Amino acid sequence: MSTLFFNAHVISPDLDLDGAAVLVRDAKVAGIILPGEQLPDDCEKVDIGGDFLLPGFFDIHTHGCANHDFCDATPEGLRTIALSRLPQGVTSFLGTTLTLPEETLAKSISIARDYMADNPCGAKIPGIHLEGPFFTPECAGAQNPEYLKTPDIGLVDRMDDIYHVHKVSYSLELDATQRFLRELVKRGIMPSVAHSFAKYEDFKNACALGMKHASHFCNVMTPLHHLNFGLVGGGMLHKDVFIEMICDGIHLCPEMIQLLFQVKGVGHIMLITDSMRAAGMPDGIYELGGLPATVKDGCARLANGRVAGSTLLFHKALQRVRKLTELPLAQLVKTTAWNQARSLGIPGIGKIQHGFNADFVRMNSALEPLAVWVDGKQKWKLTN
Predict the structure, then answer these.
(1) How far, in Å, CA of 198 to CA of 375, rounded?
(2) How far is it, in rounded angstroms, from Cα 22 to Cα 352?
(3) Element (H, E) at 60
(4) Which residues in 225-247 are b (16+ Cβ under 10 Å) and which e?
(5) Crossing angle between the packed helical segments 200-209 and 179-186, to the nearest 10 degrees
(6) Which of 62, 97, 57, 56 lies closest to 279 in space, CA to CA?
(7) Run of H or E including 80
(8) Which stretches does DSSP call E strand in 227-296?
(9) For 189, which DSSP code?
C-alpha cells in the first residue's frame, strides 16, 4: 500500500515546492508530484494542510534528554530518549557516549543494537558516536577525567563489533603518529577533532589523512589567533571539513553563528544539540557521566563552572539560525540531516527524494513540529 502526503509545502535541500505531494511506498520516497499535477487515487492520503514537510532531522551528537542518558544503559531509558526526540523533529540520531568504563560503553551500545533490531518505537539509531574516552585531561571539559584513555583502536573495534561506530571524537594531540587516525579512516569511521589543544599544523596534516569533522566547533579547542591559527582557524579555512554547531545561545554567540554561516556556507555546517539528560526538563540538579551538573536558566554547568553539554531541543536550533541568517529553508535544511548523513556516508537520510527514507517532519510557519513520520509511519503528532 502506498501513502500520499499531499497539500504540502515540501522543503528539501535545494528544493522548495508549495502545494506539492510526496508518494511513499515500502518506507521509501517513491516520487514527488509537482503542484498542479494529477494525484493518484489508489493510495492512503495524508493532508499536510499547507504546512512545511521537511526531511526528518539527524542529530549526530546527543547524549540524552527527558532525564535519561544514552550511557545509563537501560532499554527503558533509551526508548524514552528515542521517543522524546520525535517532538523535536528528530527521526535519526547517533547514540553518543561519554568518557566512562569500557563495560558501560559496551552495555550502552548493545542496548542501542537491540533497540534497532526490535521494531524501534521512536527515532532510529543508525550507529554510534564515541565521544571520548580519548581526551587530554586539560581539555576534558565536562567529561569525567577518571576514565580518560589514550587512543586505542582496539577499544573502537570492540565497540564497532557490537554496533556500527560511525564517528570518533578525540584529542588530536594524543595521536602524534596519526596511526589512530589512519586506522579509523581504514575502517570507514570518521575521525573528529574535539576537546583538543592541537596546533593548526597538526590539524592540517590530519585533514590530509581523512579527518573531515570538528565536534562542537569552537568549544574546547584552540581558538583563532592572528599569529596562532588554531583549530578554529583550521575549521574555518578548510572548506571540506564539516563543523558541528550548538546553536543554543550559550555555546556560540549570535555573531559567531552568523560568521560561520558566511565563511563555511550551508554545505558544511551540521546542527547538533549535544544535549544531556536535562534537555526538555526544568532547571535543577542532574548528572553527566557521574558528575553532578546544575541547570539554571537552561544552562548546565559542573561544580567547577564548566558548561556540561546543552539542554537544547533540535528544532529550536533551526529556529535560531533561521532568524540569525535569514537564509531560505531550502538551504538551511542541509544543516539538519543531509550534511550529517553524507559526511558519514550513511545513505537514505536528509532529503525528500526518490529512494530516500520516508522520514518527515511537518512544521508550521514558526518551525514548530506538528507531526513526525519514520519510515513512512506516523510516530508522533502534536495534540492540543
Answers:
(1) 41
(2) 8
(3) strand 57-62
(4) eeeebbbbbbbbbbeebbbbbbb
(5) 30
(6) 62
(7) helix 75-85
(8) 242-246, 269-272, 284-288, 291-296
(9) P
What's the first-to-final CA gap in the chain, in angstroms?
30
One CATH from 3.20.20.10, 3.40.50.880, 3.30.70.100, 3.20.20.140 for 57-344 = 3.20.20.140
Q: Closest Cα to residue 359, out of 330, 380, 342?
A: 380
Measure the CA angle with vertex 203, ends 198 and 207; round to 5°.
155
| Domain residue limits, the chain | 2-54+352-381, 57-344
Query: HSE (CB half, 13 Å, CA atoms) of 319?
Result: 16
In angstroms and rounded to an integer, the radius of gyration of the C-alpha atoms of the chain is 20
Alpha-carbon span 38 to 4, nearest angstrom: 12
Intrachain domains 2-54+352-381 and 57-344 with the same fold: no
- The whole-angstrom separation of Cα 336 and Cα 332 is 7
- CATH 2.30.40.10 corresponds to the domain 2-54+352-381: yes
Tens-binned pLDDT, residue by residue, of the chain (384 aa): 799 999 999 999 999 999 999 999 999 999 999 999 999 989 999 999 999 999 999 999 999 999 999 999 999 999 999 999 999 999 999 999 999 999 999 999 999 999 999 989 999 999 999 999 999 999 988 888 999 999 999 999 999 999 999 999 999 999 999 999 999 999 999 999 999 999 999 999 999 999 999 999 999 999 999 999 999 999 999 999 999 999 999 999 999 999 999 999 999 999 999 999 999 999 999 999 888 999 999 999 999 899 999 999 999 999 999 999 999 999 999 999 999 999 999 999 999 999 999 999 999 999 999 999 999 999 999 997
DSSP 90-132: EEEEEEE--S--HHHHHHHHHHHHHHHHS--SSSB---EEEE-
Type and span of the H or E element at 263:
helix 254-264
Instruction: Please give the grid coordinates belonging to residue 144.
Output: 569525567
